[in-house]
Write a structure and sequence with these properties.
Immunoglobulin-like, 3 domains, 9% helix, mainly beta, binds copper (II) ion, 7 helices, binds CU-O-CU linkage, single chain
Length: 490
């Protein structure tokens, strides 16, 4: 089994769309199933090799789906029913989580909590409906810091019945890798230093599994770009160099089209954004896309390379707003309120001391552990990260919150750490309603919200999906080191 090579568009070939590279690897939909609005897929999790680093480096041993990096793009229409048989050809247990898709609990792919893990050699079939249109992705939830980190992930795209007008619909799965000088995977997964700090930040950044060079475009072209951050830990802040990225969806959910602050598209791990890019620069020009998220560590991700022939003289002016998905609207007036505090990591005690004064009131809710003493208690427990004072070990635990079904809930989340945490809730999308007490401008729907150090973020949603659902940091080393909890919806 070898990873298929993308069509050579340039010398250092660059995948325009994961679909193009992996179409051959996907089982064709059964004609009958398709007529019935049902789509059948197979995914095989196994070992393979992939050309991650550019030549003259050699290829790298990876774990991936169907021998393809990223895994095959699963693309369906909104309302279709998916049946996906996942075969485990790895040497260890696995599961698949359909990140952002509002699936029934038993299809959520959380080992032991929602299903028995898929043993080596076994197959498990997931079945759910694509209720929301949007950009989603799939990945294991079993030892994900290593399984995702070695390459097990792929895009899941749900098309609207009536998509917006664009010349191309392109998926960029972003990731990074920690490679040795000979392009082998460094196998220090889950080391304590990564767990306590930023997580496993790699030294080689890829788009669709390869270090990109150029992305060919044409003047006047309109591209719908679906960005997926599949990295274990890296946060991206993409600057499109003079192009205005118009965000039309976050985490698959439509948002009022807008250019984000500073023109920077920021994505913590697990997060997605759909952007509309109008190609407004001159024919023949070359413009860099730069990742500016980490201060003083900017780098050129890829160049947009304009062909010499414009596609059209002026850019399109058709509307780009997406139709809403069928999400229940939370009622803030009647919502039940809950508090969650995230603690721990390096410098955690210092941050807690600094924040201690202003957050005393939440301690009655069991939310906030006060002061240096309790931080020491927590650290002595052996955990590194804590949600409401508890460091998770594995996925099975007492629910930290029980949410009344079909009711509205507001959850105030306080990041009492010195680090960013992209925090993901399973089974639901939520509105981000405020940050540090300020109402958000777009009240965006998300399934993963990036919390800055010391930030307090309020989210709201209707708990309409019964079952046990994870809430965790999507920096996979933080998750593995305790930053995880369970909500029960009954
Ligand atoms: Cu994308 Cu619980 O994960
Ligand atoms: Cu985190």
């Amino acid at each position: 089994m070898s990873c298929p090579r993308p069509p050579a568009l340039t010398r250092r070939a660059f995948i325009v769309s994961a679909a193009a590279a992996s179409a051959g690897a996907m089982l064709p939909p059964q004609p009958n199933a398709r007529a019935a609005g049902r789509r059948e897929f197979r995914l095989r999790a196994g070992q393979s090799r992939a050309q991650i680093a550019p030549e003259p480096y050699g290829d790298t041993a990876v774990w991936c789906y169907d021998g393809s990096l990223p895994g095959p793009e699963i693309r369906v229409r909104q309302g279709e029913r998916l049946r996906i048989a996942v075969e485990n050809a790895l040497g260890e247990e696995t599961t698949v989580h359909w990140h952002g898709v509002r699936v029934p609990n038993a299809m959520d792919g959380v080992p032991h909590l929602t299903q028995a893990p898929i043993a080596p050699g076994e197959t498990f079939t997931y079945e759910f409906s694509a209720v929301d249109a949007g950009t989603f992705w799939y990945h294991p939830h079993q030892r994900s810091f290593e399984q995702v980190g070695r390459g097990l992930y792929g895009p899941l795209i749900v098309e609207e019945a009536d998509p917006i007008q664009a010349d191309r619909d392109v998926t960029w799965v972003l990731s990074d890798w920690r490679l040795t000088r000979s392009a082998e995977m460094r196998d220090d997964f889950g080391n304590r230093h990564d767990m306590m700090h930023n997580g496993r930040i790699g030294n080689t950044v890829t788009i669709n599994g390869r270090v990109p060079d150029v992305f060919p475009v044409r003047k006047g072209e309109r591209i719908r770009l679906r960005l997926i951050n599949a990295a274990n830990a890296r946060i991206f802040g993409l600057d499109f160099g003079g192009h205005e990225p118009v965000v039309i969806a976050f985490d698959g959910q439509p948002v009022e089209p807008h250019v984000p602050a500073g023109g920077l598209v920021v994505l913590g791990s697990g997060m997605r954004a759909d952007i509309v890019l109008d190609m407004t620069a001159d024919a023949g020009s070359r413009i860099s896309v730069t990742d500016r998220f980490y201060k003083d560590l900017e780098y050129r991700l890829v160049d947009l390379a304009y062909g010499n022939e414009p596609l059209r003289a002026a850019t399109l002016d058709t509307p780009v707003a997406l139709p809403p998905n069928p999400l229940p609207e939370p009622d803030l007036a009647s919502a039940a309120r809950h508090e969650i505090t995230f603690n721990g990591g390096m410098m955690g005690a210092m941050v807690m001391q600094q924040m201690g004064g202003s957050m005393g009131e939440s301690s009655s809710d069991g939310g906030m552990m006060g002061g240096m003493g309790s931080m020491m208690d927590m650290m002595h427990s052996g955990g590194i990260w804590f949600v409401n004072g508890v460091a998770a070990e594995g996925h099975v635990m007492e629910p930290m919150l029980t949410l009344a079904r079909d009711r509205s809930h507001v959850i105030a989340m306080t990041n009492a750490t010195a680090w960013h945490h992209p925090t993901h809730l399973h089974g639901h999308s939520f509105r981000v309603i405020s940050r540090n007490g300020q109402p958000t401008r777009h009240r965006e729907w998300q399934d993963t919200v990036l919390m800055a150090p010391r930030e307090r973020v309020e989210i709201a949603f209707v708990a309409d999906n019964p079952g046990h659902w994870m809430l965790h940091c999507h920096i996979l080393e933080h998750q593995a080191a305790g930053m995880m909890g369970v909500f029960r919806v009954v």
